[in-house]
């Protein structure tokens, strides 16, 4: 895993290299955030932390573990400490590391993989793909664009489980990058650097679309075009170059 300075140096070096070699300003690669941009979860808790206690209680009940309420409270605090909204971090951490720490005080036998799986699946998340998503992705591919993603995975959630919620979209991605696969969460630009390097393009030949401030910051830090998708009409100004209300408006920008 890169240290922060190493990741920043790598991105800076790539940007300098791209600028030195020049190249067309024509957009060749389109990067998307996923949650809130291409899809959403219909029954996701307003704050993930609010679910932690229920998640561990469900694990206890399903696996019939002999752990107390105090054990669960301690596990909640450990998991809470890994949440980047509580304790800011850009490096991402493997689910196995997080849950090993969160369950280290449990005095009973269990399979860590089952704990993690039950913890998240019991949330009953219902994915909803926005109506304009598939048609837009199809059209972009038909027009010759390369399509990539840069998505932050929920604290402690395995990447494979994360991808399962939007499996029908995966065939449309030429490259899937998550905070777990690249090692860093947005707004660290390591993921966008990996995408650009993979396709051999400069930041000027990329655009990144997302619905949150960190999506705009990561695009600006990397140096590519930033587009905010404002599906809920918040009229937010994060310094984005363009704002769209739905994906069909991308055509006007491209």
User: Which class best fits the helix and strand makeup?
Assistant: alpha/beta
Dominant shape: elongated
Count of DSSP helices?
Answer: 11
Uncertain spans: 1-24
Radius of gyration (CA) equals: 20 Å
> Beta fraction of the residues?
5-15%
Specify the helix fraction band. 40-55%
Estimate the mean pLDDT confidence: 91
* Helix and strand element order: HEEHHHHEHEHEHHEHEEH
Keywords:
single chain; two-stranded antiparallel sheet; 254 residues; 13% strand; alpha/beta
Describe, in plain words, how this protein is organized in 3D:
With 254 residues, the protein is an alpha/beta fold. It is 42% helix and 13% strand. It has helices spanning 4-21, 52-63, 69-82, 95-102, 112-121, 133-142, 159-164, 179-182, 190-199, 213-222, 250-253; strands spanning 29-32, 39-41, 127-129, 146-151, 175-178, 206-210, 225-229, 242-244. The strands form 2 sheets. Strands 5-4-1-6-7-8 form a 6-stranded parallel β-sheet, sandwiched between helices. A two-stranded antiparallel ribbon has the order 2-3. α10 (213-222) links the parallel β6 and β7 (225-229). α2 packs across α3 (69-82), α2 (52-63) packs across α5 (112-121) and α4 crosses α5. The longest helix is centred in the N-terminal third of the chain and has 18 residues, at 4-21. The chain starts with a helix and ends with a helix. Residues 1-24 have low confidence and may be disordered.
Short recap of the structure:
The chain is an alpha/beta fold and 254 residues long.
